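[PROTEIN RECORD]
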Amino acid sequence: MKHVGDQSVFKGEVKQWLKSHDLDYKWMAQQCGVSEITVRNWMSQKTIPPLKQQLIERVMAQLPVSIPSLTPIDTPGVEVDASLTLTVKLSPTLYNKLESKASKQGQTLGEMVAKAISGLVAEETPSVALKGQKVVLPPKS
């Protein structure tokens, strides 16, 4: 069991890690299933509960400290939030174009995106395939 004083170093690492990933307390709160205020309290004066500290450590371990390959996407109408889930927000126009392309290929937009992601993973590690992964797309607006 760690002493309360030992968390100051950990809290500093968390703050630096969030900053290096351009993430905030709100994002970390979502990962931990708590409110943003709770995370703010942890980072300022309160003790982070041991299970939540382990969760934060796991979240930090799953994302590398620096991601130089992450460059802003310059495709108009596309916004990507990549954490432990991947959310892609598309403009209605782009969504319709992609849906039409998928339809012409005899598949759903979700299937087309899942295949594209599988292709990206397979390029790096051919033995890895996305099995049982589901891509959830927003309803058409």
